[in-house]
Amino acid sequence: MQEMIAFNEQRAEIYWWMSSLLSRELTAEDLNHYHSGEILTFLSGLAMTPELKQPAEDFQNALQRLATRADAQLELAADFCGLFLSTPKTGALPYASIYVGQSGLLNDQPAQEMNQWLERYDIAQRKDFNEPADHLAVELDFMGNLIIRANQQADEQAAEPLMQAQLTFLESMLLNWLPAFAQACQSRDPFGFYAAAVNLLLAFCRLDHTFLAGEAQEA
Asked: For the domain with range 2-218, which CATH number is right: 3.30.465.10, 2.130.10.10, 1.10.3480.10, 2.40.50.40?
């Protein structure tokens, strides 16, 4: 049980990390942290998993390019705005409604479904993040919280429904649009920092799906 709790904590931290990365522009202080030995060690650890090796190394390469980029913080902020704060025609907006259904941002079904998930598990959206519920950062933050909710149960039997909920959420609310979002980032992020980050996220979500599906079969 303790090993599973520790493993779940690591899973939650990755979801929360990506939620933070995709929710706002990085500051100069953030960039200093990204160039620290702690982050490099973390990425090297991810790269030891075969399914994450290439995307983790690609993100490391993007960080190396960023270290020598002129006006790195300002340029990366411009990349963030161009990708995530522009229009569906020019950017890669991080909303499920862009990629699910036929009506773009006018389609509020993904946000309604996400609000239902939040209400069902009594998990609140961050008050300081004033975005529709179908924003990727909201969904990733929720997934992290759902993982920790499973850790808080008395035993594995009590945690099992929450592990199943994670699998269902990953399938129906993330992996149903993340591949298209990653492709949009790839084609519209010339420098490649955010494209590499989203590719790493996609690879991790697919790996996590394999883990959760295996847990469900064992149960």
From this structure: 1.10.3480.10
